[in-house]
């Protein structure tokens, strides 16, 4: 079997190596992509660390209470990017409008964890472990989601099957399934052109070669071969697809590198990236300021990633989450404090977008959680369960989210 011209041209890493022998999992990924009967599915999870203000991200501009409780930091009706007459996007998220209109982007409002904690550390831990209120869970739900997939039938798996972008493996991907953290593709040198890169023999290779608990144990050589294959494509000079304009910065770089790995057919199945800067207790801002700046970075990076994937986006789902929302009322410092419910975005080929899902609880005083916050009406695990079972194909939800009683009949039905 030969790689089709379409795959050959689309994936620079494969084109560069030519007839050089490829690692076995990379060969399978390439041939599988060339086979129209095989469509690998990918899930990308993005965490907004710091508790994003969902009410100023997807604005309930049709509710008078929103404006009454936020006299200085509300998003004026004239500035809101209207979605359905009641909800609208913050104007800094203009790059999401085409995704919404094309029905690739769905929104779940008033979503979150049922646990009442207002601790960043605990709430993030609960959402990454998938077990709100339970601190003894020692692995992450995204790792558990990989354990009962059809792809597990084969013995050989890509070393990049589960990948996180950052200096260390996050809680969400910890567990028995192999996963790897990559801070920057250019840090993994194979004696290439980057004089500032750390040689593989002193970093990546050595890290796992001397670890008895290596997450890559038994696949190390293929991993290094794959990194060499990727390096041959000169990742420092990767050119995204036309109109895929990534913002400069850590988050944009992470998604650009992820797009490169997906397009190089390195076997990525689940991926994780995060973006901080959401804890706005003071001077949050409105159409301009702190929240506008981070929202621009967030939305433009995701939009560029989607554009960069091209037709590969049809087999990719992106889900965003944050540990909790912010108070319905602004505080005395023109900011917001730790709240409860939030908003989740779901983007992808199989997503039934162009709709805000979930039951809106309202912002009247009697409707607020503990008299101060937007109430949770959709458990975040219900959204994730639908993606894991209906899209990835893991029906063992009791293992992925132990103790959660959500059933398929309760899904918000955001997937086609």
Give a summary of the structure in a few sentences.
This protein has 416 residues and is α/β, with parallel strands linked by helices. The chain has 14 helices and 14 strands. The strands form three sheets. Strands 1, 5, 6, 7, 10, 11, 12, 13 and 14 form a nine-stranded mixed beta sheet that branches. A three-stranded antiparallel beta sheet has the order 2-4-3. Strands 8-9 form a two-stranded parallel sheet.
- Determine the CATH topology: Alkaline Phosphatase, subunit A
The figure for the number of domains is 1
Which residues form runs of ≥5 with pLDDT under 50?
1-22, 30-36, 189-219
Strand proportion, as a percent range, falls in 5-15%
Q: Tell me, what's the shape? A: globular
Secondary-structure-based class equals alpha/beta
- The tally of helices reads 14
Main β-sheet: number of strands, strand sense, barrel status?
9 strands, mixed
Our Rg estimate from Cα atoms comes to: 21 Å
> Any idea of the CATH class?
Alpha Beta
Average pLDDT works out at 85
Number of strands: 14
Which sequence of SSEs, written as H and E, runs from N to C?
Answer: HHHEHEHEEHEHHEEEEHHHEHEEEEHH
Give the terminus-to-terminus CA distance.
32 Å
Give the proportion of residues in helices: 25-40%
CATH architecture descriptor = 3-Layer(aba) Sandwich
């Amino acid at each position: 079997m030969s790689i089709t011209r379409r795959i050959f041209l689309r994936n620079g890493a494969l084109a560069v190596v030519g007839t050089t022998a490829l690692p076995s999992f990379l060969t399978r990924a390439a041939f599988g992509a060339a086979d129209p009967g095989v469509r690998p599915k990918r899930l990308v999870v993005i965490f907004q660390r710091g508790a994003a203000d969902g009410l100023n991200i997807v604005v309930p501009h049709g509710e008078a209470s929103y404006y009454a409780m936020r006299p200085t930091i509300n998003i004026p009706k004239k500035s809101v990017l209207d979605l359905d007459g009641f909800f609208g996007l913050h104007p800094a998220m203009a790059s999401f409008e085409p995704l919404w209109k094309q029905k690739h982007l769905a929104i779940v409002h008033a979503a979150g964890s049922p646990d009442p904690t207002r601790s960043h550390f605990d709430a993030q831990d609960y959402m990454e472990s998938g077990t709100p209120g339970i601190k003894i869970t020692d692995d992450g739900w995204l790792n558990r989601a990989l354990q009962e997939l059809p792809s597990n039938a084969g013995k050989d798996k890509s070393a990049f099957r589960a990948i996180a972008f950052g200096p260390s493996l996050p809680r969400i991907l910890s567990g028995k399934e192999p996963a790897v953290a990559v801070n920057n593709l250019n840090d993994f040198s194979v004696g290439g052109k980057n004089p500032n890169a750390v040689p593989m023999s002193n970093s990546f290779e050595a890290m796992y070669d001397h670890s008895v608990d290596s997450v890559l144990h038994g696949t190390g050589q293929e991993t290094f071969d794959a990194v060499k294959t990727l390096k041959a494509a000169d990742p420092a000079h990767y050119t995204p697809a036309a109109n895929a304009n990534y913002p400069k910065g850590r988050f944009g770089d992470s998604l650009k590198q992820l797009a490169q790995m997906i397009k190089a057919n390195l076997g990525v199945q689940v991926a994780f990236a995060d973006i901080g800067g959401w804890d706005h207790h003071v001077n949050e801002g409105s159409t301009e300021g702190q929240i506008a700046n981070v929202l621009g970075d967030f939305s433009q990076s995701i939009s560029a990633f989607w554009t960069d994937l091209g037709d590969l986006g049809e087999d990719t789902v992106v889900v965003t989450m944050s540990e909790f929302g912010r108070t319905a009322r602004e505080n005395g410092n023109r900011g917001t404090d730790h709240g409860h419910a939030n908003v989740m975005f779901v983007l992808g080929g199989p997503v039934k977008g162009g709709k805000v899902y979930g039951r809106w609880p309202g912002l009247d005083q009697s409707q607020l959680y503990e008299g101060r916050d937007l109430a949770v009406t959709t458990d975040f695990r219900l959204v994730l369960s639908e993606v894991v079972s209906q899209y990835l194909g893991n029906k063992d939800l009791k293992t992925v989210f132990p103790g959660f009683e959500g059933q398929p009949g309760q899904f918000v039905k955001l997937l086609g």
